[in-house]
Amino acid sequence: MTRWLLWTLAGIILGGIVHLGTILALPRTASQDAYARLAPITAVNTMTPIPRPTAAKALLPFMDPSFAVAVCRYDLGNGPIKLTAPVSQAYTSVTFYTRRGVAYYGINDRSAGRRTIELLLMTKAQHDDMPEDSEVTAADRLIIESPSPTGLIVIRALSPEPGLMPMAQASVAAARCATQTQ
Fold this sequence. Notes:
Layout: H1 2-29, H2 34-38, E1 47-50, E2 67-75, E3 81-86, E4 92-98, E5 103-108, H3 109-112, E6 116-122, H4 124-129, E7 143-145, E8 150-158, H5 165-173, E9 176-179
Parallel strand pairs: 6-7
Antiparallel strand pairs: 1-2, 2-8, 3-6, 3-9, 4-5, 4-8
């Protein structure tokens, strides 16, 4: 009887290890992640509005139809990225993702405290190479360090009512994402 229980316990443990390994490896082996889905319709280091999802078709999974969305596929190989996003009347958020879809930073209009969200996105090496300016404080210049040289910036603007969707779409369409010039 104990021999049978030991074999059963070993099978359960082995099954758990295989299950956990599969779950952890699946995102790295998926060929149609968000970055790959957006590559045909977006240019690198350019903000691109995403079409609203319908019941039959959505470009990305779990898109909320009450949000206007714009995406910037960034590549920090040519230098830091400057992001400028105007704040909509209802709610605006900016989220940063690595190439593999891991969210590493997010900011919204309430925490920005301004009518425009402005920030610089760069790698740690690019940040270390920046000259220190004693007159510019951290509050004046928001710098985000990216853990990877490529990834996604997603801007979402809420439309509290269907009739206000053009206002939210105009807000995300006015956002800019471009390589910073010195």
